[in-house]
Structures are given as C-alpha cells and as structure tokens.
Write a structure and sequence with these properties.
By secondary structure, this protein is of the alpha/beta class. It is 53% helix and 10% strand. The chain has 23 helices and ten strands. The chain has a six-stranded parallel β-sheet, sandwiched between helices. Strands 8-5-6-9 form a four-stranded mixed β-sheet, sandwiched between helices. It is globular.
Length: 464
C-alpha cells in the first residue's frame, strides 16, 4: 500500500537538485563536527556528562519546573503554562492583542513551528516576521523548515537569489552569499525598528537562576529579544536544567555537534525584563512552557530518553535516510531520527507510527548523539507498538506478521532450520526471490547452492 510517507519519500528521491544540496551540506557538517572533537576521550567524557545532566533534569522535572517558575516570577518574568498547541497559541495571541500588536518579530523557534503559530497569527491579522535567515527564506518560499538547525539547507544560492529577486524587485539581482545576507540584514533592520513585540525559542531554561539561554549566530535572536518592548519566549517543558553550571558542557556539546563551532557567535542569557536603571531591553518578558504530549513521554521510563534531546541535529546530519529524502520527506516538524521517535509520541502512533520505519537501524544517530539517546532501541519499541496496534487491520500487516513468526520459529529450532534451508537450496532454480520494496532499487539476492556450514566442512574448518 502506498502510504503518505512512501509517497513523500518517492517524490523526494526524484528531486535531484534538492538531494545534491542536502548531501553537500551534510557532508560539510559531518566534517566540521569531526574537527570540533579531535580528542575522542574528551568527547566521550562530555557525552557522559551531557547525558547525566539531562537525565538529572528529567528525573526531577516537576520540581525543577516549579523552581523555574518561582525564580522567573521573582525576576519579573511572567510564566504561562500550555497543555497543548491550542492553549499556547491562545496565550501568545492574548499577549500580542493586549498590547495592540499587528506584527511579531520572530527569532528561530522550532516549538513555534510545532504549534503552528505563524498560521494562527496570520488568521488573526497579525504578521509573523521571521528574522533568522534560513527561516526568512522558508517563509518567502511558503515552505516548512527541512532541518531543525538549517531550515533552508535544501536550497542553493541560485534558488535563494531568484526568491529574493521576486520579493525584493527594487534590489539588484545577485547570487553572492555575502550580498544576499546583507540584503536580508537591511530588510530586517527596518522591521526591528518598527515592531513592538518579539518572540523567540529557548535552548535551555535554568531553574536555579530563572535564566533563559538562547544561542544563535546572526544577532537576530538578540534583537528579537531586546529591541521590542515585549519579549515572548516559548519552549517545551523538557528544556529545563537544574543549575547554571550545567549550561557550559551542554553548550559545548550543542554548538560543536550542530555546526562544528567551539561556541556560537551569540549566547544570550535572559533573566528578566529591563530594570528601572537600564536603558534598553524589553519592558515585559513572558515565558510559555509547553507540554503538548511531553508529560506522557516523560511518564514512560524508556521513552523518556527522547526528551534528553538538545536539538543539535547531529543525528539527521549523519542519517542515511535523512540525507536522501530530506526533511520534507518526513512530512513533520521534527524530521530525521529524532523526529522518527518524537513525532509518533507527540502525535500518536495512529497518525505517525510509520515514521519509526524510516530508518535503517544502522546506529549512526546514536553514535553521534551528544546526550546518548538510544534512538535505534526506541525505534524498535515504537515499531513493535505500531505493528501490534495495526495487527489484523490489513492483509499486508497479517502477511508480514506471519513471515516474521515463521522466521523466528525456523531460527529457534536448528533441525527445522536445516530442513527448510535444504529445501530452499534444492528449489532455488524455481523460486524467484522478490522482496518489495527492496527490489525496486536493488538486484534481487540469489539463493546460494551450498550453505555456509557445508563450505566450512569442505574447507576442513568445522569445529569438532
């Protein structure tokens, strides 16, 4: 059956230009990450530390969230709790309308993508203005991000030049990256001057100090959070950490894993609104803490590891599936290996359970994850649960279940295994091995005339 995922993946495989752009970008990011961690022992020590910090935060999540709320309130930050996307959008909309806002300057935020904030704002006559260069490109193209760190990674400079030329016809056409960046900067500077409300994501929220940490390279995040009178920050509840000292190792892992940088150009630490004796900064700071299914994930001792994620995208940069179909092939906000375990849990196995099949289980994702999320094990868990939920719903599922049960039975009984393989070898000329969809892109495997055991005996290598 041609499912939506298979249709999207097939379409993605036919976009040669997009695939070449993604392959080139991922190769570059892989090399940069490798160069950023020259000392393997140091990397493993940092990964152990990162895993421990995130596990400590998740083990104490309710208490840390209460502590974060209390400290933020003491600092003058207004904290809002949102059970789902609808509540989060309603909270943000109320804040904006309460200040008479007609536009919102946005720093990069995947959570805002998760809740569909831009569509919500537009539906209420409020203009969302993306200021991150990649997000701006995606907004102008009327697309969704294809990567959680580099939203427009699937586009090359010629496509971006053509896009800017259509939207900014008064500007001279150029394909030079520096001039394209300068054009975006000029356009955005004017928007920063006239917009009173800014919105951003949060990389980490420190419970000990009530500090919101944002990392970025373009300066747009800093302008989005300091130039407007009102700053709204939105983040998932899992982003909280206990102490300020935990921030340094996580930032080291995040920036090196994501872009190969020792540190990003800007590290913003926001602990409250402008004080009476300060000349700049927002007059109000709001923090929206989003659940949207995260508490359900947290309740499962094994699946809780999903929430360790620090959104570095190293898993998708190294994933053979993501590199070939890109983020849009998944059809979800969070693509790649992390999306394949997160989205089925956020949206339910009924809607997104098939995403767990979008993996080779090669383990490349877990090998590079800076906080050691066991993605292959979680994929297997979700695959099993999805298969159990689908049992009896279709002929394909029943046949697949029968095949795997037969395989397990044969391999569990040596005499039966030898008899079955003997029969298959004798009938190899009559049996055509057709394994769809494997054979769509590969030559069908051939059944060997002799077994490995027979070859070993012939060579005199059998262990008596």
């Amino acid at each position: 059956m041609r499912t939506e995922l298979r249709v999207r993946a097939t379409q993605a495989l036919g976009r040669d230009r997009v695939r070449a752009n993604i392959r080139r970008a991922m190769d570059g990011l892989i090399l940069k990450r490798r160069a950023a961690f020259p000392d393997v022992e140091e990397l493993e020590r940092l990964r152990d530390q990162g895993e421990a910090i995130r596990d400590h935060a998740l083990a104490n999540l309710p208490e840390l969230l209460e502590a974060l709320e209390g400290r933020c309130a003491a600092n003058g930050i207004q904290v809002h709790w949102a059970r789902d996307a609808a509540e989060a959008n309603a909270i943000i909309l109320t804040i904006i309308q309460g200040h008479g806002g007609k536009a919102v300057i946005k720093g990069k935020s995947m959570v805002s993508e998760e809740i569909g904030l831009n569509d919500c704002l537009s539906a209420h006559g409020i203009e969302p203005i993306e200021t991150d260069l990649g997000e701006l490109i995606i907004q102008l193209a009327q697309e969704h991000p294809s990567h959680i760190v580099a939203p427009a990674v699937h586009k090359d400079r010629r496509e971006i030049a053509a896009l800017f030329s259509r939207h900014y016809p008064d500007e001279p056409y150029t394909e030079e990256i520096e001039r394209l960046t300068a054009l975006a900067r000029r356009v955005m500077r004017e928007r920063f001057k006239g917009t009173r409300i800014g919105l951003s994501g949060v990389n980490f929220a420190v419970a000990e100090t009530g500090t919101l940490c944002l990392v970025e390279n373009e300066g747009n995040g800093r302008l989005s959070t300091t130039a407007p009178d009102v700053h709204i920050a939105i983040t998932g509840i899992e982003k909280v950490i206990a102490r300020l000292e935990h921030l340094a190792p996580l930032l080291t892992l995040l920036t090196r894993s994501a872009t190969g940088q020792p540190i990003t150009t800007y590290v913003n630490m926001i602990s409250g609104p402008r004080k009476p004796d300060e000349r700049d900064g927002p007059r109000e700071v709001h923090l929206v803490l989003l659940d949207n299914g995260r508490s359900g994930i947290h309740a499962d001792p094994q699946l809780r590891a999903t929430l360790r994620c620090i959104r570095c995208a190293a898993c998708m940069n190294h994933c053979p599936v993501y590199v070939r179909i890109g983020g849009h092939g998944y059809g979800t906000v969070y693509p790649g290996p992390i999306g394949s375990i997160l989205e089925p849990q956020l949206q339910g196995l009924e809607r997104q359970g098939e995403l767990a099949q979008a993996s080779t289980l090669c383990g490349a994702c877990s090998a590079v994850c800076p906080v050691r999320i066991p993605i292959p094990q979680l994929l297997n868990r979700l695959r099993f649960e999805h298969a159990e939920a689908q049992r009896g719903k279709g002929t394909g599922i029943r046949i697949e279940g029968f095949i795997w049960r037969a395989w397990a039975t044969a391999h569990a009984h040596p005499a039966l295994y030898r008899r079955v393989t003997w029969i298959i070898r004798r009938m190899r000329g009559l049996v055509g091995l057709s394994i769809r969809p494997w054979n769509r892109t590969r030559t069908a495997p051939r059944i060997a005339p002799r077994s490995l055991h027979a070859l070993v005996r012939e060579e005199g290598l059998a262990n008596d």
